[in-house]
Specification:
six-stranded antiparallel beta sheet; 19 strands; 10 helices; alpha/beta; 505 residues; seven-stranded mixed beta sheet; single chain
């Protein structure tokens, strides 16, 4: 049986789902491949034990920490919609300065080959697609907006609102997190406690499956194959054109042909697929004449912070509505970028049990009832030695040493200080390691110079005429903001380029 398409898109997450959606009316015959299946709607979607202790939805595969040789279970989820099925639904834009070269205490964050203004109209389209709720003008380093958010920000619950007042009393500027949950009139969202890190049993989260893939499939020119793993990409003899994708489906190996191939498997798996696709024309891996493929792997410096007032409980249900960017570009005492502080979904006792096994459950329940919980995030700078490689048996090896830690420690001190000043005397932190890779990026950076990048400014491989990589792989820097909206915006821009359309700001 011959399988031939105009486009094959590998991966149905934020990047692949956006490309499929944006090309849905192009008339092109498109095949969307997903190695997983649809995530089921079931009672376990909202069960802490199932999600955090049993890791019901997390991949069971192991990657190798190259520095120790030990295996670890990565934070990846193989479903239609990818990691957006369990993400926190926070969709901020990057700062305009993030697209320029920035000096950090730990080194230089390089400039992007496009500006914020080039991406700005696509950010606006992406916010519409994901019904983003926010308030313009609150964020002290907010980039220019040509239009307001599609919907008003989610209201703060009383404890969070009181915290915002106490932060303002300290001279800080808390702002409403831009959130992709269906809190519109008649929407599905009930603002529950099982959003951040959980699948949504009500399909009320703005994820790639609901907002992109399902609408795209309404058009008869797009097919979706689930439980189909891409093994390698085949090129013609000269190596300038990708001609086919070899896949495994139902225990059978198939070869699928296409005029254009879009890789969108996530920064780690996209790099691994291209490395596995090495041939005589591309001996170091597909699109790797620069030797940059797999290099500059980034995933943020991340710390979970729990602040506790032992004198009172926190009855908040939906906590993820506020963030702080006052230290994003530094302050008078530390003139280098530090990063972002944002509320997490409300901590529950079972989450603590999974993170800190061995402590009495009664103690953990008491702590969870009294806590406010934050995510402290700083930029992870690109380093060519932080990279993805394949072992002798094809196993995925992650070489990663954290950097820019001094800035992260400075941000942690300020976060702890502001929470204590707000009335939370007990502050606990847990800095996350190599397994916390939900913000992975950078392994196929884009740029104008083929000797120093893998992709061109429209995410086409420099070395091939018809191969694109459209996920967070293209990032030259990680910034200190959640990456999903930027992935979507660039994918919309790439789709317009593929259709010969230029969208003006």
């Amino acid at each position: 049986m011959t399988h031939h398409y105009d486009f094959i898109i590998i991966g149905s997450g934020m990047g692949g789902g956006t490309i499929a959606y944006a090309l849905r009316e192009s008339g092109a015959r498109i095949l969307l491949l997903e190695r997983g299946d649809y995530l089921p709607q079931e009672a376990q979607n909202w069960q802490v034990e199932a999600v955090f202790a049993q890791n019901r939805y997390k991949s069971a595969e192991q990657w190798i920490d190259a520095s120790s040789g030990a295996g670890f279970k990565p934070g990846v989820h193989y479903f239609v919609g990818g990691n957006t099925k369990v993400y926190g639904a926070c969709l901020p834009r990057f700062r305009s300065e993030d697209f320029e070269a920035l000096e950090h205490e730990g080194g230089t964050s390089p400039a992007w080959c496009i500006s914020y203004e080039e991406l700005q109209p696509y950010y606006a389209l992406a916010e519409q697609l994901f019904f983003v709720h926010g308030n313009a003008g609150e964020d002290p380093c907010e980039p220019r907006r040509a239009s307001p958010y599609p919907f008003p920000a989610l209201p703060h619950e009383p404890t969070v609102a009181a915290l915002c007042d106490k932060l303002r009393d300290q001279g800080l500027y808390p702002y409403s997190l831009p959130m992709a949950v269906d809190w519109r009139e008649g929407g599905r969202c009930i603002r529950c406690m099982t959003c951040d890190g959980f699948p949504c049993k009500l399909h009320a989260k703005g994820d790639a499956e609901r907002c992109l893939v399902i609408p795209a499939l309404q058009h008869g020119t797009i097919d979706l194959w689930t439980k189909t793993r891409a093994l390698r990409i085949v090129t013609n003899d000269g190596g300038r054109r990708a001609t086919a994708v070899e896949v495994e489906r139902g225990g059978e190996k198939l070869t699928l042909h296409a005029e254009r191939i879009v890789v969108a498997c996530g920064a780690v798996n996209s790099a691994a697929l291209l490395l596995r696709s090495a041939n005589s024309a591309h001996p170091r891996g597909l699109a790797n004449s620069s030797d940059m493929l797999g290099r500059n792997y980034m995933m943020h410096n991340n710390t979970a912070l729990t602040a506790i007032d032992p004198r009172k409980t926190n009855p908040t249900v939906f906590q993820k509505t506020v963030a702080i960017n006052d230290y994003y570009f530094g302050d008078d005492d530390f003139p280098f970028p530090m990063g972002n502080i944002q509320a997490l979904g409300k901590l529950q006792a079972g989450m603590l049990s999974a993170a800190v096994p061995g402590l009495p459950k009664a103690l953990l329940r008491g702590l969870a009832r009294r806590s406010i919980d934050c995510w402290v995030m700083s930029e992870d700078l690109p380093d060519p030695n932080n990279r993805i490689t394949l072992g002798q048996n094809g196993e995925l090896r992650v070489h990663w040493q954290p950097n820019n830690r001094a800035a992260h420690r400075q941000l942690l001190r300020r976060a702890a200080r502001m929470m204590r000043a707000a009335g939370y005397p007990l502050v606990f932190t847990q800095t996350l390691g190599i397994e916390t890779n939900s913000h992975q990026c950078g392994t196929a950076r884009f740029g104008d110079d083929p000797t120093d990048s893998v992709l061109d400014p429209f995410c086409k491989a420099h070395d091939l005429d018809n191969l694109y990589v459209v996920d967070s792989s293209f990032f030259p820097s990680s910034t200190a903001m959640n990456p999903a909206l930027t992935i979507c915006a660039q994918a919309l821009r790439v789709a317009d380029h593929l259709q010969g359309v230029e969208l003006l700001a």
